[in-house]
Known about the structure:
Blueprint (H helix, E strand, L loop, with lengths): L4 H4 L9 H14 L20 E8 L1 E5 L6 H8 L8 H11 L5 E3 L3 E4 L5 H11 L14 E4 L1 H13 L7 H10 L3 E2 L6 E3 L4 E2 L4 H26 L8 E5 L6 H7 L4 H8 L10 H28 L22 E7 H8 L3 H20 L14 E3 L6 H4 L3 H4 L2 H15 L3 H4 L1 E3 L3 H4 L19 H11 L13 E4 L1 H4 L3 E7 L5 H25 L11 H16 L3 E5 L5 H8 L5 E2 L6 E5 H14 L1 H6 L1 H12 L1 H4 L1 H13 L9 H42 L2 H11 L4 H13 L5 H25 L1
Antiparallel strand pairs: 1-7, 1-8, 1-10, 2-3, 2-9, 4-5, 6-7, 10-14, 11-12, 13-14, 15-17, 16-17
Helix pairs in contact: 5-6, 6-8, 7-32, 8-21, 8-29, 8-32, 13-21, 16-22, 21-26, 24-26, 28-29, 29-31, 29-32, 30-32
Amino acid sequence: MPQNDQTQLPEFxxxxxxxxxxxxxxxxxSRLGIAHAVRSVHGALLFAPDDITAGTENxxxxxxxxxxxxxxxxxxxxxxxxxxxDGRTRSALDQWLADNGDAAWEHSWLRIGRxxxxxxxxxxxxxxxxGRSDRADFEASAAELRVxxxxxxxxxxxxxxxxxxxxxxxxxxxxxxxxxxxxxxNTAPEIVSTHIVSGAAGLGRGVARENAQRFLLTQxxxxxxxxxxxxxxxxxxxxxxxxxxxxxRLRRLSQLLPADAYRDLLMxxxxxxxxxxxxxxxxxxxxxxxxxxxxVHANAHLVETGIARPRVVQSLVCDTSxxxxxxxxxxxxxxxxxxxxxxxxxxxxxxxKYLGDLASKIIEHFLPLFAGLxxxxxxxxxxxxxxxxxALGFLPHELHASHLRQLWSAWKRKAGLxxxxxxxxxxxxxxxxYFAALAGTSAQPGFDGQPGNAERLNAxxxxxxVFSGKMTFYALYRLRELGKMGFTGFEGRHYSLFGSLQxxxxxxxxxxxxxxxxxxxxMADGSVMHAQIPDDPxxxxxxxxxxxxxxxxxxxxxxxxxxxxxxxxxxxxxTRRTRPSKRHTAYLKVYLDDYRAALTRMLTExxxxxxxxxxxxxxxxxRVTAPEERGVGARLTRGILETLGxxxxxxxxxxxxxQAAERYYRDDLRQSxxxxxxxxxxxxLHGMMRRAQKGGDQTxxxxxxxxxxxxxxxxxxxxxxxxxxxxxxxxETLRALIGLILLNVNEEERRATRxx
Length: 756
C-alpha cells in the first residue's frame, strides 16, 4: 500500500544506538534487493561493474610563451594603476618581469585578431558575451580580443565546427555538445568528460582512454589556435599541460600584488558553462577572498596551539591555492539511482544522505592508498617554507589541534636536523596547499547522515571566518546527490597528478570503484553504522590525519588507544607492527606502510570483491609493497631529477627543483599523455572501421573516408601524428584529427546506448 513521505521516513537519529541504525540500514538494502542473504548476486551489487558509471573533470595548467612585449600578462601588469608609482612595488614588479628566463607566462590571457576568427567562433563569441556587463574586459581594441586560455579552447572548437568544409554529421553534432565540456570557472582550464564511461566494458580502461583522447583533443585545439588564430605569428604560443602546483613565479607575483589586482589578472571571467557568467565570476572572486582570509586565520590558529609565533600571522594575504590543479573522478550507481528515483522525494533525500555520508566516512580510511601511490604533486620546500605557517597550509582548519601538533613534530623529525638549511621534499604538496576538506564542529558535523548538514556546517564556519556559506562544500570524497546532479554517487577529489593515464588513472578508477563497492557491502551487511564512526571533531580528524601524513611522506602517525572509531580499530587489527607509543603514551604508533598493507588485506578478505577486482588488488599490492618503484610520487620525482642530472631532490635547491618540475610537466609529461591519446585513438579507429565494415554502416565508413581524405586509418594517423608531435600539423590535418576524435566519441555513446 502506498505511503506518504512522512510515514515512509526512516528514523535517522544520530543519537540512536548501533542496533537501531543497523535495522534501519538493513531495511533500506532489503528494499533495494540487496538483503544480506542474496547480496552475492552480481546484478544486485552497488558500484559493481554492471552497475557503475564514471566521469572526470580535469584541471590543467596553461602558459603563453613569448616576450613581455607580445604577451598579455606582462602588459596587463604594466597597466595596473599602482605600477605607475615609483618605489619598491614597481621596482619589484620590474624585476619579476625581467626574471622570466623561460619566457613562459603562466595563465596569461591571449590576444586574438578578430579577423582570424571563423564564422563558428564569431557566432559563439557573440552568444557568450551577449548581455554581459563586463564584456569590455574581453576587448583589447577594435581589432583585438582578450580571452583566457580555457575560453580559447572553446573558440577553437567552435571555429573547427564552423569551417567551410563541414565535418560529417555525426562528428558535427557531437562537437556541438562537446563545446560544453570546456569550462572556465577557475584560473586553470577545466575540462569535463566528453561521454560517461560504463563499467561493463572495463571501468579503468574506459576512464583512461576517454581522458587520453580528451587530452589529445585539447592539444589539437591548442595547435589549431596557435596556427589558425595566428597566435604564434603574434608572439604568443599557447601551451596547456598537466601540472598540480601553483607555478613558482605566480606564487612570487601574489606577494607583490594587492589581492584585487591578482584576481583581476588571473581569475577566469566564466565565459562558458553558466547561466549567469558574471555572477559566477563574482563567486570565484569570493572564493579567492575567502581562502585568502582563511589562510590568515589558519596561521592564527597555529599561534593559539603554540606551533607558530605571533609575528607571522599576517604574512600571507593573497592566497594562490586556487592555482592547484587536480582530477575529480565521479562514480555513479544506476541501481541506487533507479531505486531513489522511485521513492517519495523526502525519503530519497534522507536515505541517500544517510548512506552517502556513512560511505564517505568509511572510504576516507582508504584514501591514504592513493596519495603518493596513484597520484602525486612532488614539491621541494625551501628552508623559508619549512615553517609551520607556510608548510601546514590549511591543515589547521582540517585537523584537530592534537593531531596537528603530532603531525608537525613528526614532520620535523622526518626532515631531520638539516631542515633549517635545506628544507624538505613532500610527495603531494597540492593536498597540503589546498583546502581539501572542511572539518565538522561539535555542534555541526558534516557527515552525520542528516540532510542539509553540509550547508549548516558552511554557515557555522563562515561565522568563524574559516569559510563562506555561499561556497561549495569541500570534502575529500563528496556525495553527488540525485536531485542536484541527475545521478547518485561520489566525487573523488583526492587526485593530484598521474604519471600515466593508462597505468595510473585507470587503476585508480578501478580501486576507487572497488572501495566504494566495499563500503556499501559493509553497510548492507549491517556491520558498519554511523555510531561506529562518531562525528566529533577529534575522531573525524583522527581518520583524516593518515591521508595528510601520506601526502607529507611521514612514515608513521598516532591513534588514541581509546579511540571511539570502531572501523579504525578494525583496520588496526589487521596491521602487524602497531604498538604503544613511547613518545605519546596515550596513543598507538602506526606505520603508514603497515596501515596501507592492512587495508589491502581487508579488501582481499572479501572473496567476491577480491575475485572481481583481482587485477586491481594485485596492482595495489605492488604499489604498497614497492612505493619507490611503483608509486607515482617516486616516478614523477625520478623524471624531474633526470632532467637535472641528479639523483636526489635534496641535491638541488628548492627553486631549481620546482622549476624543473614545471618544465617536466610542460614538456615531457604533456608529450607522454599526448602519445597515450594518439595510441588509443589509433586503436579505437581501427575497431570502428572493423565494426562498420562488418555491420555495413555505410554512413560511418563514408565519414571516416571523408576525414582521412581516402587514406587508410593507419597511414593517415601515423602521418598526422608525426606532424602534431613536431608542431607542424596544418589546419586541415588538425581539423581532420579533431573530427576523428568527435566521431569516436559519438561511436562510444552509440555503443553504450545499444548496450544499456
